[in-house]
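Hey,

Quick one before I head out. I ran the complex with guanosine-5'-monophosphate overnight. Inputs first:
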Amino acid sequence: MSSIFTKIINGEIPSYKVAEDENFFAFLDINPNAKGHTLVVPKKEVNKLFDLDEATYNGLMSFSRKVALALEKAVPCKRIGVSVIGLEVPHVHVHLIPLHSMQNIDFKHKVSLTKEEFEETAKSIAENIQ
Ligand code: 5GP
């Protein structure tokens, strides 16, 4: 069965898309630690980060960097934090999280955003992708 992220990539489940290329897809986390919390996933469905083949792993990091640079421009913050967990969704994803304090990276404190805020944030990140 396809992962929930494969369904998002295929457009079967809606998402606030930030960026996409042939191999990778970036979208806003639906339960964000901070405004702008973005997930970057390889289209190839693999469970664990270090099980990715080297080319896909390197491509994922490179694509994540591109998204992170845009995110840092779009959302005021001290820096972008990076985390890879995968205990909830067994399809590799990189969390890119705008950091204001340590609280933003502990996954216990969440922020709620309106549909309009999600849409505006995704648009603003997308516009800053280079
Ligand atoms: P992890 O697998 O790294 O522990 O966490 C999975 C992450 O995916 C969580 O931060 C969760 O909020 C996010 N997530 C789970 N389901 C969905 C979904 O359907 N849409 C979006 N945009 N994010 C999701």
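The chain has a mean pLDDT of 98.

Talk tomorrow,
K.
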